[in-house]
């Protein structure tokens, strides 16, 4: 049904602006900021659907916590076009819990939360320190000019998630490019499908190996639950993909942001105890995982407007994390602010399962990097740093850096 407002025709409605390159690479697109005067407004989707866009922080939180809004892929309209995808999306593949609602979601989620406690993640922090130091040693050897993404931002989270899950790091060649393809918005549906199948096949082999010979890791641990091999491979694939790409982009883009804000970097260097706060502020400021779509299961009134059953609502994480009602002077990177309450990890039933791990990794990695290389700087002009603006996870493709050798 055509549910456009009476004053605006469908053609005049905005689509989701995605190009962050215009202006500052860390800021939301100017077109998006221009739409932030209203927390909730109508938006035109890739397939012509007239749905909604949320830019207000409080509105986003309310919707993400409301079970009347579904995460099921088959109910969603895509906010931005994806090559080779038209019509209805297929339901979530087995084990991909991000595309499920309660009660299916709850069953998997309960099982997994037990493995991702704050305590367990803290225990991993000593390992993070070791692995980070090893990566920095290798980087120092390779330098003084390296691509920080390849030398540091990718290997640190990759080593950690491999260790946590019990995936051999030496197999990285086999899964790293598949994960990149899965998140790449410019890759067509067929290429994504192939990458996903290959990833699942790899995990499937690994699950069988863990069943036969359990080791001390999360995947082996999960084989003692009532999950099937297919479910285990799917969940393993999801964790591996989520663990590899997100934190890596935060480390790469976060380093770029700190190098571009030397006063903030100096403050962090002067007081490494600010690391946790810096990480929260970078999560808010950069919002790498964006946007989050949901579909209304029934008519819901929000902000005095009627969202009808079947309509898709897109939460712009970037816009909500720059909402001035929640974060004063939002476009300023300020590591002294308390950025808690940001939506970079989502909110509600699907809030990021790996957030404690990600926090531990970043809290260790950023100070270690800047302590090791006090003269670290970009090796190219900032406007030449290639950005991942066509991916579900924003970041830098590479970050050429250099330092003075002692
Ligand atoms: C969910 C962001 C790191 C595993 C999410 C969601 C966001 C997010 C926004 C919510 C999606 C939604 O509501 O639809 C991030 C960011 C990270 C990060 C910014 C790094 C800084 C990780 C890591 C892991 C992980 C390291 C794995 C170890 C997951 C999983 C879900 C999820 C399994 C799905 C949870 C569910 O649907 O119940 N993440 N994530 N994430 N994340 Fe993360």
Automatic annotation (TrEMBL):
Query: Which Gene3D superfamilies does the entry link to?
Result: Cytochrome P450 (1.10.630.10)
Q: Name one GO molecular function term.
A: oxidoreductase activity
EC number(s) reported in the record: 1.14.-.-
Source domain of life: Bacteria
**Matches recorded under InterPro entries:** Cyt_P450 (IPR001128), Cyt_P450_B (IPR002397), Cyt_P450_CS (IPR017972), Cyt_P450_sf (IPR036396)
User: Which keywords fit this entry according to its UniProt record?
Assistant: Heme, Iron, Metal-binding, Monooxygenase, Oxidoreductase
Question: Disordered: where is this region?
Answer: 1-28
- Report the PROSITE patterns cross-referenced here: CYTOCHROME_P450
Q: Which PANTHER family match?
A: CYTOCHROME P450 YJIB-RELATED (PTHR46696:SF1), P450, PUTATIVE (EUROFUNG)-RELATED (PTHR46696)
Q: Could you say which protein family the record assigns here?
A: Belongs to the cytochrome P450 family.
Q: Per its record, how is this protein called by name? A: Cytochrome P450
């Amino acid at each position: 049904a055509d549910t456009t407002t009476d004053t605006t025709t469908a053609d005049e409605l905005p689509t989701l602006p995605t190009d962050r390159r215009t202006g500052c690479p860390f800021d939301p697109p100017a077109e998006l900021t221009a739409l932030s005067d209203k927390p909730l407004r109508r938006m035109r989707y890739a397939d012509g659907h007239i749905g909604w866009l949320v830019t207000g922080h409080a509105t986003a939180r309310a919707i993400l916590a409301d079970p009347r809004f579904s995460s099921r892929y088959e109910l969603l309209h895509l906010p931005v076009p994806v090559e080779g995808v038209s019509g209805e999306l297929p339901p979530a593949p087995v084990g991909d819990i991000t595309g499920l609602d309660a009660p299916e979601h709850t069953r998997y989620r309960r099982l997994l939360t037990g493995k991702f406690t704050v305590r367990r993640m803290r225990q991993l922090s000593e390992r993070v320190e070791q692995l980070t130091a090893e990566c920095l040693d290798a980087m120092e050897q390779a330098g003084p000019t390296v691509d920080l993404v390849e030398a540091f931002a990718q290997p640190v989270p990759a080593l950690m998630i491999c260790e946590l899950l019990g995936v051999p790091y030496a197999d990285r060649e086999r899964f790293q490019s598949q994960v990149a393809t899965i998140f790449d918005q410019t890759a067509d549906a067929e290429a994504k499908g192939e990458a996903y199948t290959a990833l699942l096949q790899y995990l499937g082999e690994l699950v069988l190996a863990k069943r036969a010979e359990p080791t001390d890791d999360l995947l082996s641990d999960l084989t003692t639950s009532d999950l099937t091999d297919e479910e285990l491979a799917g969940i393993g694939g999801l964790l591996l993909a989520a663990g590899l790409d997100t934190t890596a982009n935060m480390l790469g883009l976060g380093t770029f942001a700190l190098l571009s804000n030397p006063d903030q970097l100096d403050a962090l260097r002067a007081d490494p105890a600010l690391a946790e706060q810096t990480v929260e502020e970078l999560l808010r400021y950069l919002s790498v995982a964006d946007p989050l779509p949901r579909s209304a299961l029934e008519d819901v009134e929000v902000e005095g407007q009627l969202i009808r059953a079947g309509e898709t609502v897109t939460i712009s994480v970037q816009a909500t994390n720059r909402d001035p009602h929640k974060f004063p002077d939002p476009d300023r990177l300020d590591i002294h602010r308390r950025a808690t309450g940001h939506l970079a990890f989502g909110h509600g039933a699907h809030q990021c399962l790996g957030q404690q791990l990600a926090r531990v990794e970043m809290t260790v990695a950023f100070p270690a990097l800047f302590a090791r290389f006090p003269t670290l700087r970009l090796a190219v002009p900032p406007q030449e740093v290639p950005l991942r603006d066509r991916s579900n996870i924003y970041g830098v493709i590479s970050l050429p850096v250099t330092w003075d050798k002692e």
